[in-house]
Automatic annotation (TrEMBL):
The chain holds residues 112 to 385 of 405 of the full protein. Its EC number is 2.7.13.3. It comes from Nocardioides faecalis. It is found in: Cell membrane. It is an enzyme of class 2 (transferase). It catalyses: ATP + protein L-histidine = ADP + protein N-phospho-L-histidine. Its main location: membrane. Keywords: ATP-binding, Cell membrane, Kinase, Membrane, Nucleotide-binding, Phosphoprotein, Transferase, Two-component regulatory system. One of its GO terms (cellular component) is plasma membrane. This is Sensor-like histidine kinase SenX3. The lineage of its organism: Bacteria, Bacillati, Actinomycetota, Actinomycetes, Propionibacteriales. One of its GO terms (molecular function) is ATP binding. The keyword Metal-binding does not apply.
Length: 274
């Protein structure tokens, strides 16, 4: 039931309205119920996922208390606590991001998004992680491409793909980010020669919280939410994301987004310059 009111389907049945409006209300109710189901599911998953790092932080804090007179042990437990709390912070941040995206609401103020800038920022953002593994991250392809939407969202999607490519590659390998125009779309591909994804798992990696072999990947500090964020960003922008992968050889993730239509192009103001 809606807060303080009749359930919407009852309103629809009794309302003395034209049939089209009643139908719209019933459809609205069906959609509402679906959204509610997704939300309930999500909350259940979130509570489950949060319990692990929260529990770990508590146990580690107790260990610090117990080891008060052993500075080395205190240092060890405290640094593990830091790792867990960083993971917790990342998890909470991604949960908030994803729940915003799951509304599937149309973008509020779509603006032109420069793919050059988005790619450069994503490459920049992984420099530290890449350098730690001596991995080279290279940006290639067509310059000057633009899509329309949210720079923050498209930026987060590309950053997630590049971060994954680095996280799931062996040291000293190479990650390439390319972009090109194909018809009315912009294709951004992130290519790695990393561990790849087993064929049976490829279908599932875009699900919320799904991780291939979580025990083995624990060291990457991942949350299993990155790719579902990418999928939602693609959907809200009218695009999609695909993956091609061979286990043990590498993966290519391709994010496809509609190119900025010509009519949105700003007038050539530079022609006024001296
Ligand atoms: P995570 O935070 O665990 O990286 P994602 O949703 O981004 O979560 O990815 C889900 C899972 O898909 C990862 O845990 C990993 O098993 C797999 N995966 C994602 N990207 C790659 C990649 N480039 N190479 C190999 N496996 C990947």
């Amino acid at each position: 039931p809606r807060p303080g009111g009749l359930p919407r389907h009852v309103v629809a049945r009794v309302a003395p309205l034209g049939s089209r409006l009643v139908l719209a209300l019933v459809e609205d109710r069906t959609r509402e119920r679906r959204v509610e189901e997704v939300r309930r599911d999500f909350v259940a998953n979130v509570s489950h996922e949060l319990k692990t790092p929260v529990g770990a932080v508590r146990i580690l804090a107790e260990a610090v208390q117990d080891a008060a007179d052993d500075p080395e042990a205190v240092h060890h437990f405290a640094s593990r606590m830091l790792t867990e709390s960083e993971r917790l912070a990342r998890l909470v941040g991604q949960i908030i991001e994803l729940s915003r995206l799951q509304g599937d609401e149309p973008l509020e103020h779509p603006t032109p998004v420069s793919i050059d800038e988005v790619v450069a920022a994503a490459v920049d953002g992984t420099q530290l992680a890449a350098a730690a593994k001596d991995i080279a991250v290279l940006a290639e392809g067509e310059a000057g491409l633009k899509v329309v939407g949210s720079e923050k969202q498209v930026g987060a999607a590309v950053a997630n793909l590049v971060a994954n490519a680095v996280a799931y590659s062996e040291p000293t390998s190479r990650v390439v980010v390319t972009r090109r125009r194909v018809g009315d779309d912009v294709e951004i591909s992130v290519i790695d020669r990393g561990i790849g994804i087993p064929e049976a798992e490829v279908e599932r990696i875009f699900e919320r919280f799904y991780r291939v072999d979580p025990a083995r990947h624990r060291s990457t500090g991942g949350t299993g939410l990155g790719l579902s964020i990418v999928k939602h960003v693609a959907a809200t922008h009218g695009g999609d994301v695909r993956v091609w992968s061979v286990e043990g050889q590498g993966s290519t993730f391709t994010l496809t987004l509609p190119v900025q239509p010509e009519r949105h192009t700003a007038p050539a103001q530079h022609s006024l310059a001296p």
